[in-house]
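Quick one, T. Sequence first:
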Amino acid sequence: MTVDKDLLLILKSNGIGDGEPDLGEALMGSFLCMLLESGRLPARILCLNSGIFLATEGSPAKEQLDRFAENGTEVSSCGTCLDYYGRREKLIVGTVGNMRDTVQAMLTYGRVLTP
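Structure tokens:
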């Protein structure tokens, strides 16, 4: 697998789309699996808002995020979001980030992917 040093993935929700939550979560899981299978990984994944549920206890995407991290992708979750949802102590993948890191990443990476 190759880490694309110019690609940032922002997960701003624990699902994809605005319909049924279960469908959105299934789509997110499928998206992450297909991205892993592509062999072209983002250099960084930022989990924002309800996206932090993907990196905390009970995550349906823990296995996928672990694989990203094991292959060189930096994973971080918004500290404000973790606190808002009471999940800071339940972080199981990656590190705690902040809005300064998020803005810097958005300004630095050449391509930003948001499912």
